[in-house]
Amino acid sequence: xxxxRFLTLTDVAETLNVSMAQTKALVRTGDLPAIKVGGRGxxxxxxxxxxxxxxxxxxQTRATLxxxxxxxxx
Length: 74
Description:
Elements: E1 6-7, H1 9-16, H2 20-29, E2 35-37, E3 42-46, H3 47-64
Antiparallel strand pairs: 1-3, 2-3
């Protein structure tokens, strides 16, 4: 079965294991691109945009950590 192209804010919060408030903040700041659809303006995040966000966060984390620092050091 094919996965849906768009995810709800709840789906994204669960995937990232963060709160709904954190997910809404990511959308509000534009860090995670989203669209409003339907008469009630339900927010949807394209699956590829979520994957792009995750990859950007990996790259940002690598760029900010010293090469010698690992999770075991703390």
